[in-house]
């Protein structure tokens, strides 16, 4: 039996929604007795364990809490209640552009990003050529990252992340912004990562790529864990929710995401 790789136990994350932006608006609202903010649970009492080597698809509608959960697993955010435990080095792309300095070039950011993962200059130099080859950014590698398109950001971030020798690989937004050939290359690289025995958590709306990548699916709905189990059953769950209207909305979203991803992925 493999060791536990990620343990999420009773995790809740609250966010505050502010209704007014300026001090004047807030003061006026307070005088009128109107609410100025509201707290809501982006994640509500989530618990699951992922074993080393499992490849888990994290699915659910927009705003259901997938990215927030990934941020808690990666450690960039802390839960308000509960605990998240992880074993070993974590790498991945959790948000486009995270860990980049906008005024530095792509080249410089490769060293910066690798340093954030704990790599020395020599260790980064050893993977540098592979990172550059994978990113395929051409001359843009010498321009400030602040001028990059979201796809170029994603290429650079994904390229560094896949070349880090990690135990856990987290992937969010990777395939959402890349073009078709890059998406295909990313999927192949992620399959390689999965087959090497690393734990993968893959956030996606695309049922096809989740089927290809994952051996388990976790579904979130409005911050609650509503399904944890077999991939086909999880996708089926998303297709046909508790009522028909909701089910068909989910189906439409999955189909749109799949066609955006391209038939071959
Ligand atoms: N820093 C924040 N402050 C306030 N609200 C936030 C913050 N981050 C996320 N949220 C809210 O928390 C909820 C969950 O967001 P999250 O990004 O985790 O959803 P998601 O499932 O990844 O969605 P998508 O499929 O659109 O990427 C949303 O309602 C979002 O608006």
UniProtKB/TrEMBL annotation:
Any Pfam family hit: ABC_tran
PROSITE patterns (UniProt xref): ABC_TRANSPORTER_2 (PS50893)
Keyword entries, A-Z: ATP-binding, Nucleotide-binding, Transport
Domain ABC transporter: 23-247
A GO cellular component annotation in the UniProt record: membrane
Recorded GO MF terms: ABC-type transporter activity; ATP binding; ATP hydrolysis activity
InterPro entries: AAA+_ATPase, ABC_transporter-like_ATP-bd, ABC_transpr_TagH-like, Bact_Polysacc_Export_ATP-bd, P-loop_NTPase
Family per record: Belongs to the ABC transporter superfamily.
Name this protein carries in UniProt: ABC transporter ATP-binding protein
Taxonomic classification: Bacteria, Bacillati, Actinomycetota, Actinomycetes, Propionibacteriales
